[in-house]
């Protein structure tokens, strides 16, 4: 007796005929029936996505063109800072804070650290002395009680005598805690000047221009946005074009300086700023100081009439 009983498909009444079985796995619509044949599936969706892609591409190209136009305009302003608009009236109306500050101001700018002297440590290469930082050191000494020190790193074999005494004869007559600020210069074999104020909490500030900005900020001068931007632009121009640029770039910068100094006594307006210090030092350390336009020559004499600039000149001799 069989366990399972299966109905026979062959010969019995009602058997499945062979022609009723499927002849293909999947059935697709015939696309070749004549002119009125149906359109391929998803054709409309493909066309819509292509149109969206084309529209997006045109929008991107339009934005790129606008950005290119804006960059071209900025490059012209950098080459000739006073060509597009005259900021003389804005600069003259700017309110300046004098180069004076007290201990309370210094604490607000650098932070109050009880029981420890705020010490600025700068590493510089004696073969490329950062003249602007030495000028700023002299200016800071007129405002604060500064404990200055000069050291030589083991990576440097020989340092000229005038650089070892660039801060003058240091005779400490007071205890360390009676000073407001420490200023330590280390002659070291580094590619560019480096500065640290807080050894534990900050990364080094690199570049003569950036360090000069930090040191000059200790005077607490306040400027509006236009003047601050103009001063920053002059600092970068002095470092990258006047000091390190080609002869053509230096000539272009001197022409721009001559135009600006024909309107205002200083590069930043009516008061001495970090732009004047960095630009003057860049001129002194290049051959550009030999032949300068009339307004620039007058401005250089005004700088040299100040004691910190005059003492820096001795280091170049």
From TrEMBL:
Function statement: Required for assembly and stability of the aminoacyl-tRNA synthase complex. Mediates ubiquitination and degradation of FUBP1, a transcriptional activator of MYC, leading to MYC down-regulation which is required for aveolar type II cell differentiation. Blocks MDM2-mediated ubiquitination and degradation of p53/TP53. Functions as a proapoptotic factor.
Sequence ranges assigned to domain AIMP2 thioredoxin-like in this UniProt record: 116-206
GO biological process, one term: positive regulation of protein ubiquitination
Protein name: Aminoacyl tRNA synthase complex-interacting multifunctional protein 2
CC per GO annotation: aminoacyl-tRNA synthetase multienzyme complex; cytosol; nucleus
Organism: Terrapene triunguis (Three-toed box turtle)
Compartment(s) of residence: Cytoplasm, Cytosol; Nucleus
UniProt entry tagged with the keyword Cytoplasm: yes
Keywords, ordered alphabetically: Apoptosis, Cytoplasm, Developmental protein, Differentiation, Nucleus, Phosphoprotein, Protein biosynthesis, Ubl conjugation
